Request: fold
Amino acid sequence: MGVIKEFKEFAMKGNLIDMAVAFVMGAAFTKLVSSFIDGMVMPIVGKITADVDFKSLKYILSEEQKDASGKIIATEAAIKYGEFITVFIDFVLVAFVMFLVVKAINKAKKKEAAAPQPAPAPSEEQRLLAEIRDLLKNK
Reply:
């Protein structure tokens, strides 16, 4: 029974829940950025590079082999470097956006920390000492 209780305490800690939420949001964010890259960025890059579809770029090591009836007897062996280029661009953009988000959060935290704290009210002793000092000045 002790293990179940320990697991329940572990699972209900705020850090674990926060991490799970961050993981789900990260996965959704990755889909969003991948969709943006595939649908908007790569077509522009393709136009700039004379209609090159990066996902189709590959270096063929051995061609696909078919028999007389057209049945594939050996699949093509290829290095698909175009997919790597696409995923690399995807990674760089995700990393850049995450950098901007973290930078904005840190900037907001600095502003929050830099806000001046109101001076604490003087203690009774300090107030009495100030009165004594003021009385001595007047003499």
Summary: Helices lie at 2-11, 14-48, 81-114, 124-138. The chain has one domain: 2-138. The first helix runs from residue 2 to 11. The mean pLDDT is 82.
